[in-house]
UniProtKB/TrEMBL annotation:
This is ZAD domain-containing protein. Gene3D superfamilies: 3.40.1800.20. Keywords: Metal-binding, Zinc, Zinc-finger. One of its GO terms (molecular function) is zinc ion binding. Zn(2+) binds at C14, C17, C60, C63. It holds the Pfam family zf-AD. GO terms for cellular component: nucleus. InterPro entries: Znf_AD (IPR012934). Residues 12-87 form the ZAD domain.
Length: 101
């Protein structure tokens, strides 16, 4: 993957958007593991990554945000489908006598 010094000059290639970025998250690094990136990408996107494939193992901050948003949306939809969503308070509509307006 190259040295860190070289990366600071040229940047890293994002696995998802294929653009060069100076600030990236290593998918298999500490932060990537804490965020469960491998599971989220492999489980919820139409791509598969592995530590042995020849493609970049980094994603940019923009793609990270998008992965997190996509994952959050899918989890919300799953909870709703299972019926585990917040109860909405029923609002009583009171008909008012508006007279002859």
């Amino acid at each position: 993957m190259g040295s860190i010094d070289r990366a600071c000059i040229s940047g890293f290639l994002c696995r998802l958007c294929s653009e060069m970025h100076r600030i990236v998250i290593h998918i298999y690094g500490d932060q990537g593991r804490k965020l469960c990136l491998v599971e989220k990408i492999n489980g919820y996107l139409p791509i598969t990554i592995s530590p042995t494939d020849p493609l970049p193992k980094t994603i940019c901050e923009t793609c990270l945000r998008r992965v997190e948003q996509h994952y959050d949306l899918l989890m919300r939809l799953t909870r709703i489908k299972q019926g585990n969503f917040p109860k909405i308070k029923k609002v009583k509509f009171i008909k008012k006598n508006l007279g002859s307006l």
